[in-house]
Write a structure and sequence with these properties.
With about 100 residues, the protein is mostly beta strands. Helix content is about 0%, strand content about 45%. Strands 2, 3, 4, 6 and 7 form a five-stranded antiparallel beta sheet that branches. A three-stranded antiparallel beta sheet has the order 5-1-8, with no helix packed on it.
């Protein structure tokens, strides 16, 4: 039953060593008491300059809380075949201990 604050600061693009960046869109997260992540996905915007904070309550009677995160990356046909990188940060902290 503890409250947890999760701060998300995730990239809005993936960057190659050469060529055009690839946009990252459609960020979602889901919080569940099961590893199957059966909760309802919540959308949010990426962008490391605009972190968001959300406060969730852990599930009564459960010793675990599962947090899933995902996004969509759309490549064009002209994207180079090269590694792409993006930097983000996810921080979780109990707020009522």
């Amino acid at each position: 039953g503890s409250a947890v604050t999760v701060t998300l600061s995730l990239p809005s693009t993936l960057n190659p060593s050469a060529g055009a960046n690839m946009p990252v869109t459609g960020w979602t997260y889901v919080v569940s008491d099961s590893p199957a992540l059966s909760g309802t996905p919540v959308t949010f915007s990426g962008g490391t300059s605009a972190p968001i904070a959300l406060q969730v309550q852990t599930f009564a009677g459960s010793t675990s809380m599962y947090f899933g995160i995902g996004a969509t990356v759309t490549a064009s046909g002209s994207q180079p075949t090269t590694p792409y990188t993006g930097t983000g940060q996810i921080t979780a902290a109990y707020t009522d201990l």
